[in-house]
Structures are given as structure tokens and as C-alpha cells.
């Protein structure tokens, strides 16, 4: 299967795996975010942390906005969690980020389990439809 931004998403997931390998489960989300930021720097993965995402309604910008944990390669939204499991609300959150930005790829990464859990979300803004690749 030919994935959009395959190499970039693999690089991001690899960085998250390294963070999880060293820290394991049990820390707060902010700890994983800081460690992931350092790992991105070590691996030369371009990113913006806590990037504000504009929301539009009928071509008008709203005063409210989302804040993504990371946007990597100016294209991939990365949302981190540190919980016992990922929920449908977590998935809806990143889908809304993709809708708002018109980006097509998001990674939902959960450091809260014994093994790193992640989902790669593909959102087709033209069809307003998402699909998910699971790995846990």
C-alpha cells in the first residue's frame, strides 16, 4: 500500500517509540511532549509545538481556535495522549483538527500503555471522510 507521507509518519512514530522505550508508561502527557520535542530535534524532524489552528465557517475565520500538540513537516498533525486507552473523543479531536486545517494526515500517539499505541488518521477533505490505520 502506498501511504501519503509514509517516510515522514514513520520518522515521527520512530521518535515516539524511542521516547516510550526510554520513559515507559506512567508520566503526564506534558512530560512525553517535552521528550518528544527533544527527540524531534535530535532526528531533525521539522515541527511546531502547540501550534494554533484556525477554524473557518463559510470562509470567515472564527475567533476560537484549536491548539495541536505538534505539526510536523508543515503537514502532519500529531496529538499526544498519556491515558490507559484512546477513545472515540480522541479520534474525533484529531479529525476536527484535520478538517480545520485541510491537512490530510494526523497521528494520534498514546504513551500511557505498556506498549506505544498510535493511529494514523487519513482525512479526505473533499469527501469529508476519514480512515484510520491502527497499531498498538
Q: Can you walk through the features of this model?
A:
The chain is α+β, with helices and mostly antiparallel strands. The model has no long low-confidence stretch (mean pLDDT 89). A 6-stranded mixed sheet has the order 1-2-3-4-5-6, sandwiched between helices. The chain is globular and about 45 Å long. The protein has one domain: Lambda Exonuclease, Chain A (Alpha-Beta Complex), CATH 3.90.320. The longest helix is centred in the N-terminal third of the chain and has 18 residues. Helices cover 34% and strands 38% of the residues. α3 links the parallel β3 and β4. α1 crosses α2. The chain starts with 5 loop residues before the first helix and ends with a strand.
Amino acid at each position: 500500500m502506498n501511504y501519503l507521507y509514509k517516510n515522514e509518519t514513520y520518522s515521527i512514530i520512530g521518535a515516539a517509540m524511542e521516547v516510550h522505550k526510554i520513559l515507559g508508561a506512567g508520566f503526564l502527557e506534558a512530560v512525553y511532549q517535552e521528550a518528544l520535542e527533544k527527540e524531534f530535534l535530535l532526528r531533525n524532524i521539522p515541527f511546531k509545538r502547540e501550534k494554533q489552528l484556525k477554524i473557518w465557517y463559510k470562509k470567515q475565520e472564527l475567533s476560537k481556535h484549536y491548539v495541536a500538540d505538534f505539526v510536523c513537516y508543515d503537514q502532519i498533525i500529531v496529538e499526544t495522549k498519556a491515558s490507559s486507552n484512546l477513545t472515540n473523543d480522541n479520534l474525533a479531536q484529531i479529525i476536527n483538527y484535520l478538517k480545520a486545517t485541510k491537512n490530510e494526515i494526523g497521528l494520534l500517539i498514546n504513551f500511557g500503555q505498556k506498549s506505544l499505541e498510535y493511529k494514523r488518521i487519513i482525512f479526505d477533505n473533499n469527501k469529508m471522510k476519514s480512515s484510520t490505520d491502527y497499531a498498538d
